[in-house]
Amino acid sequence: MPAPLNPQLPTPGPVISSAIASRTGHPAYSQTLPCEPESARRARLLVRTACDTWHLPGLADRAALVISELVSNSVEHSGSRAMRVTVSRPAPDRVRLSVVDRSHAKPAARTASEDDEHGRGLALVEAVSDRWGTDPLRWGKRVWAECALEAR
After folding, report:
1. Which residues belong to any copy of the Histidine kinase/HSP90-like ATPase domain (predicted)?
2. What angle do CA 6, 31, 104 make, to 5 degrees?
3. Taking the CA of residue 50 as centre, how many other CA atoms within 13 Å lie in the half-sphere pointing to its CB?
4. Whole-angstrom Cα distance, residue 117 to residue 67?
């Protein structure tokens, strides 16, 4: 029988990545999640926590929408058991969202018909984010998008 959880210890949560933090001085928040639909909610919470911590509430809604789509694409198309979600701050007015999985298939936007229930995710990412892309990795790929505060 496993030992009970110690209530004095913090519950598992986001892991701060110091390698990303060194470029801007802001920590990056990263979490490994199961490759399942329910992980989109946890990814949105991670994004909202980062935006709140960085005092960027104006990016929270757009960034949460983008991460939902990136996670959904990984769940739907990667065949991976797990994914790594990262939220970083490459500039004072910008957040970078990324999902790493083990698939080497490069995502491609497609045109969905009116009756299609799927197929609009990357078009939505492209419309809502300032830029997005894919980085091939030896063991899979990283799909990322950046959202910036709008100029006044």
Report:
1. 34-131
2. 145
3. 36
4. 19
- Burial, 108: exposed, middle or buried (Cβ in 10 Å; 0-12, 13-18, 19+)? exposed
- Collect the ranges in the chain with pLDDT lower than 50: 1-20, 22, 152
Please tell me the pTM assigned to this model.
Answer: 0.78
Domain residues of the chain, as ranges? 15-111+120-148
What pLDDT is attached to residue 26?
A: 72
> Which one, of 73, 79, 121, lies nearest residue 102 by Cα?
79
Predicted local distance difference test score (pLDDT) of residue 25: 63
Tokens coding 73: 């694409």
Give the model's pLDDT for residue 24.
58
Gap between the Cα atoms of 97 and 85, Å rounded: 7
What superfamily in CATH does domain 15-111+120-148 come from?
A: Histidine kinase-like ATPase, C-terminal domain (3.30.565.10)
Cα within 13 Å of Cα(78), Cβ side: 26
Tell me the three state secondary structure of residue 106. Answer: coil
